[in-house]
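[audit] Reproducing an earlier prediction to check determinism. Same input, same settings, fresh worker. If the tokens differ from the archived copy the diff job will pick it up downstream; this log only records the rerun itself.
[audit] input (183 residues):
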Amino acid sequence: MGGRVLLYNFANIRKRENIFVRIHTLPGEEAQVDFGYVGLTPDNNGKRRKTWVFNMRLSYSRLDYYEKVYDQRVETFIQCHINAFKYFKTDNLKAAILQANFYEPIYQQMYKNFALHYGFKPQPCRVYSLNDKGKVESGIKYVKNNFFGGRKFKDGDDVDKQFRNWLDNTCNQRVHGTPPKGF
């Protein structure tokens, strides 16, 4: 009985610290959320204010919801979720997670009540594990460079108007490099 012996020379293979594994999800299984700082934008009184963008990205379809905000309070975080849920018909953000622990996280009580009301289960990411929410992290970079980069705004309403137009007609019309399985 003849057999084949395969020998591998592993000496020439470089050690890789950060191996990336693409995570595929089913429709409705996961959405990733994050805040990203985008600089100063004018509010409706003409005052330039620190501005963040909230992003919720549906992991299967890669559809995005973005909203500009002037703070990252729990109430703002929850309102952004509600607005995203309406538009579509978790990172360890302090607005959601008081103490990060993959198995026994401590949630902000208001956020926990909100999740129970809407019937979803927030799941914190592992600290310093960027792959846990890689889809939304790249979404923050995308909105900074593609929408906020180089635009001028009259006031907060103008930011919102241009933002919604960009979201509907540019952002969510693009073709992604990694379409969901089955497409």
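[audit] rerun output stored. Observation attached for the diff report: The helical segments are 74-88, 109-118, 134-148, 156-169.
[audit] end
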